[in-house]
């Protein structure tokens, strides 16, 4: 029976070891044939027993959740999909009618593409080819028409450009949505607009004007980072600090020992000066390994991480609520799997008679 | 050039009974490659499994599967895909359950 990962002792099967200048036991070893007489073949029931998903923290823009009991390749697939393969809407085509600002068309167009939009990607279809006809099902149109003028009623001694001029700053809020076809109904609940209205796009001075039309389309982060739905999507492994009960930290070193770790990671009993690891606080340990720099303290502790306990941190920067993002990532992954599965089955059906298979020519 | 690239094809040099073969999967990356490799390695009948992305500017991966007992690697591949799907299904279920039932600390980021 394999010990639980919470088991205190260092276990190379469950933990990644951290020494001063190196890590140990990095790769997972739970494969059939790795350990003699042990069965590590895939077992869904066993996997489900070990699997644990727990959402820890949620805000309007970010989510922190624990994914326990999966291999790094699975956690990494989710992370990669969050960054590069969950679709969002971004401005892709810019038609410039007039631009007398100090910024050239190309640079400003690139900047427009970066604006996060609040459009739910489920409501739009993806263009199969970039040459496809723009329709109300795959394109959202924005207009930007703005001119900077002098403010004649400004006080004479004013030096603030926001007071001296009208429209001295072009903001994301100045983008006007132009509904096409059925879009006025489809998007009635949440009219397309930038998620953050106060982004300054460019500054203008009297006489300068901009007139543009923009087409926003659905895309993937692997095409261009502007389509990525997240600001960050990352994971780290749960820190595991191992104290030896047989060899406890002496009371006169307790406070120094505690100060080697991040705040709230180590508890020192105010009366007995007994040192213990805070079960919740240990998540916040940065693994600076400061304690290993002090020979008198290092001998009381072992540092490790739990290999299959992933702490995900995802910040949404687009239309998705953060708690929806992992579900979208899983949906994308399962779609990939089903596409490949039907292709593989078709390949198998092709070669079935006589076991004769078709090999590629090259 | 008129034919579209197949999603999956068998590279030259495979055993005729497919007990050892390299598959080229179009338009996939490490995202699927590594997860699939892991699931194939969980199969005790798989002697060897490895994958590579041969070149960064070509959008395909190659996955090599060698089987014990002259079994078909294509069958193992399909099974691994099934298992991988059930794995992600259970993650999805567990995530939804946590979203519904867990006491989640909601905090205000100020924006």
TrEMBL record, chain A:
Membrane-spanning ranges: none
Gene Ontology MF term list: DNA-directed RNA polymerase activity; protein dimerization activity
Ranges where the DNA-directed RNA polymerase RpoA/D/Rpb3-type domain occurs: 62-343
Keyword Ribonucleoprotein recorded: no
Main localization of the protein described in the UniProt heading: nucleus
Keywords, sorted A to Z: DNA-directed RNA polymerase, Nucleus, Transcription
Subcellular location: Nucleus
Keyword set includes Nucleus: yes
A cellular component annotation (GO) from this entry: nuclear DNA-directed RNA polymerase complex
Cross-referenced InterPro entries: DNA-dir_RNA_pol_insert, DNA-dir_RNA_pol_RpoA/D/Rpb3, RBP11-like, RNAP_Rpo3/Rpb3/RPAC1, RNAPI/III_AC40, RNApol_insert_sf, Rpo3/RPB3_RNA_Pol_subunit
GO biological processes: DNA-templated transcription
Family membership: Belongs to the archaeal Rpo3/eukaryotic RPB3 RNA polymerase subunit family.
Protein name: DNA-directed RNA polymerases I and III subunit RPAC1
Organism: Russula ochroleuca
UniProtKB/TrEMBL annotation, chain B:
Domain of life: Eukaryota
GO biological process per UniProt: transcription by RNA polymerase III; transcription elongation by RNA polymerase I
DNA-directed RNA polymerase RBP11-like dimerisation domain: residues covered: 20-93
Coiled coil: none
Any one Gene Ontology molecular-function term assigned to this protein's record: DNA-directed RNA polymerase activity
InterPro entries per record: RBP11-like (IPR036603), RBP11-like_dimer (IPR009025), RNA_pol_Rpb11_13-16kDa_CS (IPR008193), RNAP_AC19 (IPR033898), Rpo11-like (IPR022905)
Location in or out of the cell: Nucleus
GO cellular component: nuclear DNA-directed RNA polymerase complex; RNA polymerase I complex; RNA polymerase III complex
UniProt-listed SUPFAM superfamilies: RBP11-like subunits of RNA polymerase (SSF55257)
Keywords, in A-Z order: DNA-directed RNA polymerase, Nucleus, Transcription
UniProt cross-references to PANTHER family, sorted A to Z: DNA-DIRECTED RNA POLYMERASE I,II,III, DNA-DIRECTED RNA POLYMERASES I AND III SUBUNIT RPAC2
Family: Belongs to the archaeal Rpo11/eukaryotic RPB11/RPC19 RNA polymerase subunit family.
Protein name from the UniProt record: DNA-directed RNA polymerases I and III subunit RPAC2
Lineage per the UniProt record: Eukaryota, Fungi, Dikarya, Basidiomycota, Agaricomycotina
């Amino acid at each position: 029976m394999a010990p639980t990962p919470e088991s205190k002792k260092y276990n190379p099967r469950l933990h990644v070891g951290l020494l001063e200048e190196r890590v140990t036991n990095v790769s997972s070893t739970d494969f059939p044939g790795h350990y003699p007489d042990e069965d590590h073949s895939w077992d869904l029931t066993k996997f489900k027993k070990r699997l644990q998903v727990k959402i820890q923290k949620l805000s309007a823009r970010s989510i922190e959740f624990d994914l326990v009991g999966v291999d790094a390749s699975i956690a990494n697939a989710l992370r990669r999909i969050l960054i590069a393969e969950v679709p969002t809407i971004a401005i892709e085509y810019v038609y410039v009618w007039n631009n007398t600002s100090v910024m050239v068309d190309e640079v400003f167009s690139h900047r427009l593409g970066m604006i996060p939009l609040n459009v739910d990607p489920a409501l739009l279809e993806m263009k199969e080819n970039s040459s496809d006809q723009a329709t109300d099902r795959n394109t959202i149109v924005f207009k930007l028409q703005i001119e900077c003028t002098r403010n004649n009623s400004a006080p004479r001694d004013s030096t603030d450009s926001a007071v001296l001029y009208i429209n001295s700053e072009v903001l994301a809020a100045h983008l006007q949505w132009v509904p096409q076809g059925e879009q006025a109904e489809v998007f009635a609940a949440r009219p397309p607009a930038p998620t953050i209205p106060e982004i300054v796009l460019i500054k203008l001075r009297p006489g300068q004007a901009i007139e543009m039309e923009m087409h926003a389309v659905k895309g993937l982060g692997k095409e261009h980072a502007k389509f990525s739905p997240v600001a960050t999507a990352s994971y780290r492994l749960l820190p595991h600090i191992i104290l030896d009960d047989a060899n406890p930290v002496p009371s006169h070193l307790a406070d120094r020992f505690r100060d080697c770790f991040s705040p709230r990671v180590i508890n020192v009993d105010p009366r007995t000066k007994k040192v213990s690891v805070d079960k919740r606080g240990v998540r916040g340990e940065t693994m600076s390994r400061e304690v290993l720099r002090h020979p008198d303290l290092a001998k009381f502790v072992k540092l490790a991480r739990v290999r299959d306990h992933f702490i995900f941190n995802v910040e949404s920067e687009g239309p998705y609520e953060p708690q929806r993002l992992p579900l979208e990532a899983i949906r994308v992954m399962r779609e990939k799997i089903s596409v490949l599965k039907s292709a593989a089955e078709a390949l198998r059906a092709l070669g079935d008679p006589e076991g004769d298979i078709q090999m590629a020519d090259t | 050039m008129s034919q579209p690239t197949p999603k999956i094809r068998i590279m030259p040099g495979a055993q005729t009974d497919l007990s050892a073969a390299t598959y080229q999967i179009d338009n996939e990356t490490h995202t699927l490659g590594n997860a699939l490799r892991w699931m194939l390695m969980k199969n005790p009948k798989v002697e060897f499994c490895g994958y590579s992305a041969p070149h960064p500017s070509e959008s395909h991966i190659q996955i090599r599967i060698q089987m014990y007992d002259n079994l078909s690697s294509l069958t193992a591949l399909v099974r691994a895909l099934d298992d991988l799907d059930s794995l992600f299904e259970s993650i999805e279920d567990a995530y939804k359950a946590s979203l519904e039932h867990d006491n989640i600390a909601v905090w205000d980021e100020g924006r």
